[in-house]
Each structure stands twice: as C-alpha cells, then as structure tokens.
Automatic annotation (TrEMBL):
<dbReference type="Pfam" id="PF00254">
    <property type="entry name" value="FKBP_C"/>
</dbReference>
<dbReference type="Pfam" id="PF05697">
    <property type="entry name" value="Trigger_N"/>
</dbReference>
<keyword id="KW-0143">Chaperone</keyword>
<keyword id="KW-0131">Cell cycle</keyword>
<keyword id="KW-0697">Rotamase</keyword>
<dbReference type="InterPro" id="IPR036611">
    <property type="entry name" value="Trigger_fac_ribosome-bd_sf"/>
</dbReference>
<keyword id="KW-0132">Cell division</keyword>
<comment type="similarity">
    <text>Belongs to the FKBP-type PPIase family. Tig subfamily.</text>
</comment>
<dbReference type="GO" id="GO:0003755">
    <property type="term" value="F:peptidyl-prolyl cis-trans isomerase activity"/>
</dbReference>
<dbReference type="InterPro" id="IPR005215">
    <property type="entry name" value="Trig_fac"/>
</dbReference>
<comment type="function">
    <text>Involved in protein export. Acts as a chaperone by maintaining the newly synthesized protein in an open conformation. Functions as a peptidyl-prolyl cis-trans isomerase.</text>
</comment>
<feature type="compositionally biased region" description="Basic and acidic residues">
    <location>
        <begin position="430"/>
        <end position="440"/>
    </location>
</feature>
<dbReference type="InterPro" id="IPR001179">
    <property type="entry name" value="PPIase_FKBP_dom"/>
</dbReference>
<dbReference type="InterPro" id="IPR027304">
    <property type="entry name" value="Trigger_fact/SurA_dom_sf"/>
</dbReference>
<dbReference type="InterPro" id="IPR008881">
    <property type="entry name" value="Trigger_fac_ribosome-bd_bac"/>
</dbReference>
<dbReference type="GO" id="GO:0005737">
    <property type="term" value="C:cytoplasm"/>
</dbReference>
<feature type="domain" description="PPIase FKBP-type">
    <location>
        <begin position="169"/>
        <end position="264"/>
    </location>
</feature>
Length: 494
C-alpha cells in the first residue's frame, strides 16, 4: 500500500492511498482459502470446492468487504502513523465510475482513494503564565435573608373565608368569562380561579375592580389589554369579563415561626433561614462563577492564538447562526431592529465561533495534560438530568443517547470543561473581593468583558428580553387575563 501526501496547506491535508491490484488479489485469495473449508455448495464435498469456482461465486462480494474494511480501518491507522489528529471525520473519496469499480472488485485495477481532513494544531501549553483572577463575593446581610423568608411566608400564608366585602390583600375565588366585542376569546375563561387582590397577576385594572365584591356577587368589568401584550390578537383590545364571586377570604396573620417552617417541610424557622441563605449564596455563587470563568477564558484567549480548523468553526458558527435566526424569527424582529445588519452579525458570530473552537481546543489540551477525567457517575447524573426534562419520553431519550454517535460527548463536554476551569482556578492567583449584589449582577461593559460573554449576547441583550416575552405570550394564550409567573413558587423552592 502506498501512502502519499498530496496537500499540506495550513491545517489542510490530503492523502492519496493506493493499494495495488496484486496486493488486493492476494488478500482476496487468503480470504477465499479461509472460506474454502467453511463453504457448503451443492455438488462439492466440504473443502473440495475449487478456488476458481469460489472466486466466481464469492469473489466480488469478498472484495467489496475488503474494500469496506480498508476504508474503515486505514484512515485512522494512517493518521496515527503520521502523528496527526483529524478535527473531524476525514472525507474519503474514491471512484464513482461503475466500470472502474468493477475492475477493482475483479482485482484488475489498483484500489485508489484519498483522505481530506484538517489537523488539530499542536498546542504548546504556557505553564509559566500564571492566571490571575478577581473573585467577586457578596456578603449576604441578614436583612436580605429575612426579606426572602418573608416572601416565602407570603406565598405560604393561609386564608380564611370571611363575611363582607373583599379588600386589598384578600383572596377571591371566581369564575370568569372574557369577551371581545361580545364574543368569548380563547384562554379567557376559568373556573374557581384564586386571585389575591393586589398581587398584579392579572392585567391592569382587573384586580382593582374586585375590591368591594362579596361571595355570591356577579358583575361585569371592563379592561383593556396593554398595547404590548404578548398575544397579538389581544394587544390593545378592550375586553369585558363576566365574573361570579364564589368566596372571599382574608389572609391569616403572618408569623415566621417553627410552625410555618414545618408547613414547608423543614423542622424550624432557624433551618428555614439557613436554607434560604444557602439558596441566595448559590444564586450569587453562580454569577461569581461565570465572572471567574470569563476572566480565565479571556486570559487564555490572549495567551493562545493559532489557526483553527475551518470545519470545526463552520460547525460551531452554523449552530450559533441557527439559534440567532430562530430567535429573531420567533420574535418577529430583523437584524435592523437589533441595530445591526446580517453581514455584520455573520462576521461577529463567525469570530465568536472561532474563539469558542480555539478555547475548546486549549481547554481540551490542558485537561488532557492535567489528567482531568469525567467519571461514569458524573455522566449518569448528566444523562438523568436530560431525561428529567422530557417527562413521558424517558425511554426515547435514553435510546437516543445510547444509539446516537456523539450524543454522549455532548453531555461529557460541558462537564469536562467545568472541571478544567476548576483545575485552572486551583493554580491561578485568586484575589477575593467583597462587592455588593448590584456590583456582582452588573454587566461588564468594558472591552475585555464584552469579548467573552457580551460578545455572545450581541444582539442577545435584547433577545434575552424577547425570550421572556415569548414565554409570556405562551402563558397569555392559556390565560390572557394573567401575567406570567416570574419564577417557581418560593415556598416550593424552600
């Protein structure tokens, strides 16, 4: 077999492989000889089938198997011999001419094919360059913990039916039917809906008109949907709601004590405060982690500059671009609405894709040299987390990750990356800095900060809001009179 490099341009490589017809025929004969004692043919005793007859019967089939094995096994062996790693699966080209292919299968013509690929560049780690990190930490005051506990208590408080009229803060149980121009609209009906007056869960003007109602009352109220209401068919429209009041209840006295904690599944008020503090610390810790990671990636970006495989950059760019265009389409916006052009956006996200690929290669090299491993238990947890996101489809999701090439790698990659970041952080020069929560949450607007995350958010600063609006629109289609809940029930979180 002859292996010849025909292209070495940057990271691109092309290899021509020629397996002489004589060599192919020799391998074929070896296989036929091995099969001679195993094949059973009518008219021939076992082991007595002439080679010429075997070749006539099975020659092309065996040769086709041989060709497939060469195509499957040789590229990897060639790369190993050359000391190269391909960025993606090498592209294999061979003759598509049927007559020529038949000659190869008849061992009358050399078998030729070519490999085209991009090599992963050699990365020389800069062990003498120590990373420096400023880790912003929030000192959580007791007052903030107490505010959060009070919010949880508000959501967990009980109501007792009262006689008389509903006041601000009371909970009313109602049936309602919404109409526009006298006709009911989708999502405008609900029975036994519970609403705390003043909670601002319903559109402006709705809750205020329930003040003064009492059980058994029926009334019609008129409201107008906001001009920017997510459901376009309702935005700016005037609507009436026929309401039947079933119950009026006043909130019980709010007390932060062990009894409240037990209602939430905790043994004491002290434990409730401890859990709440832990939740707040976790929330701030995630932001701290993101800022630390940003600093590390920015410094690696400065330290490591090299050509990246175009195939990897193309794949990463296509993933980014698909998401960007999908977000714009769903929001009904254009690039001009985001104060940019498609050409400028493509250029920007292309740079982002190149950065991601380059840093991915750097982190991979650092992790490999440091012996970073992803344990089976970590992969199992990641898989279970994926499965949990698709209730009722657990089996299909499991089968997908078991049968789809590369699916498991999509779970492993983020785990590996975070562990490499942890490794780098353990070796970095870290300075802790106490900041306010406002300082921690503030977006960095300097050039360095924008390179990492802000660059990923252009024009995503607006898109983040759009995503919320899309969710609100979904909720609006279900119950147009309601606003989308901001987050999961605090009591459940506790």
């Amino acid at each position: 077999m002859q292996v010849t490099e025909t292209l070495a341009e940057g990271l691109k490589r092309e290899i021509k492989v020629v397996v002489p017809a004589q060599e192919m025929e020799q391998k074929l004969n070896e296989r036929l000889a091995d099969a001679k004692n195993k094949v059973r043919l009518n008219g021939f005793r076992p082991g007595k089938v002439p080679m010429s007859h075997l070749k006539k019967m099975y020659g092309k089939s065996f040769m086709a198997d041989l060709v497939n094995e060469i195509i499957r096994d040789k590229p990897g062996a060639i790369l190993t011999e050359r000391g190269e790693r391909s960025a993606t699966q090498p592209e294999i080209k061979m003759t598509e001419d049927e007559a020529e292919a038949n000659e190869i299968l008849d061992a009358k013509k050399d078998f030729e094919f070519s490999l085209a690929y991009e090599v992963i560049p050699a990365i020389e780690l800069k062990g003498d360059s120590k990373l420096t990190v400023t880790r912003e930490v929030v000192d959580i005051p007791d007052e903030e913990v107490e505010e959060q506990v009070l919010r949880i208590a508000e959501n967990a408080k009980t109501y007792e039916t009262k006689k008389g009229k509903a006041a601000d803060g009371d909970r009313v149980t109602i049936d309602y039917l919404g109409k526009i121009d006298g006709e009911p609209f989708d999502g405008g009906k609900d029975d036994d809906a519970e609403l705390v007056i003043g909670s601002k869960r319903f559109i402006p003007g709705f809750e205020e008109q329930l003040i003064g109602v009492k059980a058994g009352d029926e009334k019609t109220i008129t409201v107008s949907f906001p001009d920017d209401y997510p459901a376009a068919n309702l935005a700016g429209k005037e609507a009436t709601f026929d309401i039947k009041v079933k119950d009026v209840a006043a909130a019980a006295e709010l007390t932060i004590d062990d009894e409240l904690a037990k209602k939430l599944g905790l043994e004491s008020a002290e434990k409730l405060r401890e859990v709440v503090r832990g939740q707040i610390e976790s929330q701030y810790g995630q932001m701290t982690r993101q800022k630390v990671k940003r600093q590390i990636l920015d410094q690696l970006d400065e330290l490591y500059q090299f050509d990246t495989p175009e195939t990897l950059v193309d794949a990463e760019f296509n993933n980014i671009w698909t998401q960007i265009t999908r977000d714009l389409e769903q929001s009904g916006k254009s690039f001009e609405d985001e104060d940019t052009t498609e050409e400028a956006a493509r250029e920007e996200y292309r740079k982002l894709a190149e950065r991601r690929v380059r840093l991915g290669l750097v982190l991979s090299e650092i992790g490999e040299k440091a012996g970073v491993k992803v344990a089976d238990e970590e992969m199992q947890r990641a898989l279970y987390e994926q499965v949990r996101q698709f209730p009722g489809q657990e089996r299909q999701i499991m089968e997908y990750f078991q049968k789809t090439p590369g699916a498991a790698a999509s779970l492993r990659a983020p785990i590996f990356e975070e562990k490499v970041i942890d490794h780098l952080l353990s070796e970095a020069d870290v300075t802790d800095k106490t900041v306010s929560k406002e300082e921690l949450m503030a977006e960095e607007e300097d050039e360095k900060g924008s390179k990492a995350e802000a660059s990923e958010k252009k024009p995503a600063k607006k898109k983040a809001a759009k995503k919320d609006e899309t969710a609100a629109a979904d909720e609006g289609e279900k119950k147009p009179a309601k606003k989308k809940a901001a987050k999961k029930d605090d009591a459940e979180e506790a």
